[in-house]
Amino acid sequence: MGGLMSVTPDPAPPHIRTFHPRRGRMGARHADALDTAWPRYGLTVADDDDTAIRPAELFGRTAPVVLEIGFGMGDATAQMAAADPGRDYLAIEVHTPGVANLLALVAERGLGNVRVARGDALVLLGRLAPDSLDAVHVFFPDPWPKARHHKRRLVQEAHLAAIAGRLRPGGTLHCATDWPHYAEAMRAALDAQPLLRGGVVPRPAARPVTKFERRGVAAGRPITDLVYHRTGTTDAAD
Questions:
Q1: To which protein family does this belong (predicted)?
Q2: Is residue 6 part of a domain?
Q3: CA-CA distances (angstroms) from residue 56 to 60, 61, 123, 174, 219?
Q4: Model confidence pLDDT, tens digit, residues 78-113
Q5: Which residues are annotated as a binding site?
């Protein structure tokens, strides 16, 4: 896949995974998407690959880039990208059925501003240049509700420096969750990151309602959106 060059990588990400691989069945449509759309739209993110990802070459143009972490089945990603053709969407997921579904949506709708990555988002972040992203979306990540699993959560202080550092000054980190305790932990970690300023906001109209959000609402859980912006320096004020 285009858009790669050799660089000195960031320190290796922690061995603790922020995701739990799940199996899923794929029908003919998904299998066909992996065969036909992957060569054009797909990107493998391997743990042992230390080459940089250059979005301008990956997408074939220079445009603001949105990193979508953990897109599930990809319906919301496809909807946002279709409504936002001026930005490029680099979407990463670990579950093959979701990857295949988004590939199918991208091919069917001709979404040239989407690339579908499969692998660990923390590894991907290490291969992107500082200040290279216009926005990062983390919508309904695995809450890892048991206390002994909290170390596996994606949105925590240990990972936020890498995320914030890839945002351009003024860039946006938008997180959403339907787990109140995770929302509290997210806010505490985000508030503690010196490169970020923001807080809880009403659901932005541009964020589609996702399958996980509907499940949370059906279970009676409140939805929390947190939007933070990258400051210019670690000492920058609001």
A1: Belongs to the class I-like SAM-binding methyltransferase superfamily. TrmB family.
A2: no
A3: 6, 5, 19, 23, 42
A4: 999 999 999 999 999 999 999 999 999 999 999 999
A5: 68, 93, 120, 142, 146, 178, 210-213
pLDDT tens digits, one per residue of 129-164: 999 999 999 999 988 677 776 887 999 998 999 999
The domain that holds 180 is classified in CATH as 3.40.50.150
Where in the sequence is the domain holding 97, given as residue range(s)?
56-230
Residue 25 lies in a domain: no
Q: Indicate if 142 belongs to the active site.
A: yes
In contact, 45 and 120? CB cutoff 8 Å:
yes
Task: Write out the binding residues for S-adenosyl-L-methionine.
Answer: 68, 93, 120, 142
- Domain assignment present for 2: no
In a domain? residue 40 = no
* Residues flagged as binding site for substrate: 146, 178, 210-213
Query: Do residues 13 and 123 lie in contact, with contact meaning Cβ atoms separated by under 8 Å?
Result: yes
Annotated catalytic residue: which of 142, 191, 235, 238? 142
